[in-house]
Amino acid sequence: MPELDVARVFHALGDPTRRAIVERLSERPYSVSGLAAPLEITLTAVIQHLQVLEESGLVRTQKVGRVRTCSLAPHGLSVLERWIAERRSLWDHRLDQLGDLLAEPDEAD
Prior knowledge:
The chain has about 110 residues and is an alpha+beta fold. The protein contains five helices and three strands.
């Protein structure tokens, strides 16, 4: 199941409009219409992008009255951090092994 989460987060961040939304939400929470204003896309398109971001765990929305407020959710970023850390650890180990191998004296001499 974690691979699915990673795939969803990468998919969500693969779109420049969704990355722009995440960037704006890293400043503070916004209403949907507040997010839509500078993007020059329809409110419907923003809602569709927000749905993808919500499904990936990057954004959460809350409706109070007629206003839907969006904020950044740390879960999606945590999924990416774990995935990257695992790959970094694997490659650090492999590079250490390569370094050890290259540091061994040449037996042909």
